Amino acid sequence: MAKTHFLLEAAITIATKYHAGQKRKWGDPRLDYITHPMAAALIASKYTLTAGATEAMVCHDLIEDTKCTLREIETAAGFFAKVYVIELTNVKISGLSRADQKAADRERL
Which of 3.40.50.2300, 3.90.226.10, 1.25.40.10, 1.10.3210.10 is the CATH number of 2-108? Predict the structure, then answer.
C-alpha cells in the first residue's frame, strides 16, 4: 500500500510541475489546469483499483500539453501509469474540429 501512495504522490508532483502556469481552456479559465487531471483522478479512484489507473489520470495530459516524456511518467508514476497514459493520449488529426477530435479519440478507446 505504501508504494501505491508513493506513486500517486509522485504522479501529482510531476503533473503539478509540468502544468504550472497553465489555466483551464474549458470550464472556468480562472482555475489552474491541474484541477482537471486531479478531478479526473478522483473520479477514476472511485471506480477502479487497477494498478496505475489513478496515477495515469493525474498524468493523462502531460504528453499532449507539456514537454514531459513517457520515461519521466514511468519513473514517477510507474509502468502501468505509463501504459495507460499512452492509451489516453489523444492522437492529433489535423483539420478536425474539437468535437470530431473527441469523437475520434472515443472511438479509438
Answer: 1.10.3210.10
H helix or E strand, kind and range, residue 47 = helix 35-47
The tens digit of pLDDT for each residue in 1-57 reads 445 578 999 999 999 999 999 998 888 888 999 999 999 899 988 887 677 899 999
Which residue ranges make up each domain of the chain? 2-108
Please name the residues in contact with 92: beta carbons below 8 A apart, sequence gap of 6 or more.
64, 101
pTM > 0.85: no
